[in-house]
């Protein structure tokens, strides 16, 4: 089993330790400041930019697990880039199975290109709403776990 686990900070270490024991684990570090941390802990680690540049024929995962950043607010612009949908699309292209925390907003807009592409893919297994207290520090953002499978 070849697993990609998208991480933000070190709070995910207990889960990583479990996956490391049962799989060929690659840590996808979504926050550049933590890359060295994961490397020093002994994990095979790549950056988010490296992940987005992986091609289907060179890298393939059986599972991707993720709670990626929802948006990129690094620019001085008022416009933000949706990252959760980009991470999901990339993950589905190079993984057989994907379980990802994603914002519910992607499912409420009938004109959403992401929504149309996702539902026409025939890979959706489950969408499970997460209670608001799941992520108490995130205000006014409803989330869910999206599970997809090519099998």
Global structural class: alpha/beta
| CA radius of gyration | 15 Å
Return the string of H and E elements: EHEHEHEEEHEHHEE
Number of strands: 9
Q: How many DSSP H or I helices?
A: 6
How many separate domains? 1
Q: Give the integer mean of the pLDDT values.
A: 89
Distance between the termini: 15 Å
Can you put this structure into words, describing what you see?
By secondary structure, this protein is α/β, with parallel strands linked by helices. It has 6 helices and 9 strands. It has helices at 13-22, 35-40, 48-53, 84-94, 105-108, 113-120, and strands at 2-7, 24-29, 44-47, 61-66, 71-72, 81-82, 95-103, 124-130, 143-149. The radius of gyration is 15 Å and the shape is globular. The relative contact order is 0.15.
How would the blueprint of this fold be written?
Layout (H helix, E strand, L loop, with lengths): L1 E6 L5 H10 L1 E6 L5 H6 L3 E4 H6 L7 E6 L4 E2 L8 E2 L1 H11 E9 L1 H4 L4 H8 L3 E7 L12 E7 L2
Summary?
The protein is built from six helices and nine strands; from the N terminus they run βαβαβαβββαβααββ.
List keywords for this structure.
alpha/beta, two-stranded antiparallel sheet, globular, Rossmann fold, 151 residues, 9 strands, single chain, seven-stranded mixed β-sheet
């Amino acid at each position: 089993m070849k697993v990609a686990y998208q991480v933000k900070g070190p709070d995910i270490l207990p889960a990583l330790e479990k996956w490391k024991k049962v799989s060929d684990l690659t840590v996808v570090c979504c926050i550049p400041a933590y890359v060295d941390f994961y490397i020093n802990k002994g994990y095979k680690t790549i950056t988010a930019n490296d992940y987005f540049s992986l091609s289907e024929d060179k890298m393939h995962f059986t599972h991707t697990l993720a709670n990626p950043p929802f948006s990129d607010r690094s620019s001085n612009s008022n416009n933000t880039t949706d990252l959760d949908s980009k991470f999901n699309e990339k993950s589905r292209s190079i993984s057989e199975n994907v379980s990802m925390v994603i914002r519910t907003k992607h499912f409420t807009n009938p004109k959403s290109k992401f929504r149309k592409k996702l539902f026409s893919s025939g890979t959706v297994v489950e969408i499970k709403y997460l209670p608001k207290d799941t992520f108490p520090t995130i205000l006014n953002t409803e989330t869910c776990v999206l599970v997809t499978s090519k099998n």
